[in-house]
Amino acid sequence: MPRKSHFTKEQIIEVAIDIVRKSGHEVLSARTICGALGCSVAPLFTVYHSMEEILEDTRKAAEQMFSDYVDDVLEYKPSFKEFGMRVVRFSKEEPNIFYYMFLDKNSNSYIADTKALECLKLTESEFGLSSEEAMKIYRHMWPFTCGLAMLCNKTPDHYSDAMISEMLSSQFMSQMMLVKSGRPVMNIHPHLSREGDTIVLRRWLDSDARDLYEFARDPEVSKSAGWSVHESEEHSQEIIRKVLKKDGIWAIQHKESGRVIGSIGYKTAAFSNIEMGDSDVEVGFGIAKQYWDHGICCEALHILIDYCMRVKSFKTLWAESLTDNPASGRALEKCGFVFSGVETTNEEGKTVRLMKLERR
Predict the structure, then answer these.
(1) How far apart (Å, rounded) are the C-alpha atoms in residues 132 and 210?
(2) Which residue has the higher pLDDT, 358 or 7?
(3) Same domain, 304 and 174
(4) Which CATH number goes with the domain that contains 30?
(5) Number of H helices, E strands in the chain
(6) pLDDT band for position 1 (cuts 50, 70, 90)
(7) Structural domain for 19, as ranges
(8) Contact indicator for 216, 286 with CB cutoff of 8 Å
(9) 3-class SS string, 172-226
(10) Number of structural domains, the chain?
(11) Which of 138, 153, 181 is at the close of a domain?
(12) How many Cβ atoms sit within 10 Å of the Cβ of residue 14?
């Protein structure tokens, strides 16, 4: 049977969508489309100028599939619940199309977001919500719905329709009662389970920039910690994002005030100037000046030592102590560090004593 020499755009995209549905968008190419059409590449690019154009039209077709799937949700009450159920169900029934639309790096959720907002407007009248209250619920419900859909996309048999319906209802009703109560939400930030009397260690947040700048702009603090002086709150924000959010670094949060008053952490041999084994780490810390000589350093160090030795099973902890900053050295000694017998000179010509703490 001779091969056809001409295909319409509709025929090509129909085949392309079928490939995505069955095998995923990763295998979509001129070769796989031509194989399904039973033709060479030439007829394909008689209709289209490039593969990019085919991919663009395929994505539009996928979006249209989803749009048709949720087209009548506004006819249901409550529409937001029906829309959530449809989104999750679509992720189970059309897993490859859902992934292509929502999880691919080039995906665009504009159609889904638009429909969700349309449902939101109806939710206002259905539940007697103001526009502000409805938007607060939407900001929590929509990410929750998308997350549930992603779980069902990978493990569709783990969640029945009844479970999904109950989860969406529980989340919606919880959010609505919270919003209606007018109570502020306490934002819980996890911290290491071991605590000090006055401080906890938790991950750094972008919102900590102001607190960081308040003490990191002090030349004395920067000198004792080995940091550069922070020039602005924006500078502190950049340091948080590029440095302090890495694993092994914690903000020291004062329990009573809730403010961040310092930083503490460790770095492995690959990032340290100290010659040490692969199972060793270097520790370092910096504390706001007004909390010097209050035992904060020792509290933070005890927590860090416990984590490094008990949880991470590091063999030896190392620390550099400037001889002209005796308070730092005393804090290390109180926590069990001893002088290793090695002294060096830093870039500023200051004498540095190398301290160590070995696991017993």
Answers:
(1) 28
(2) 358
(3) no
(4) 1.10.357.10
(5) 14, 7
(6) very low
(7) 9-181
(8) yes
(9) HHHHHHHHHHCCCCCCCCCECCCCCCCEEEECCCHHHHHHHHHHHCCHHHHHHHC
(10) 2
(11) 181
(12) 15
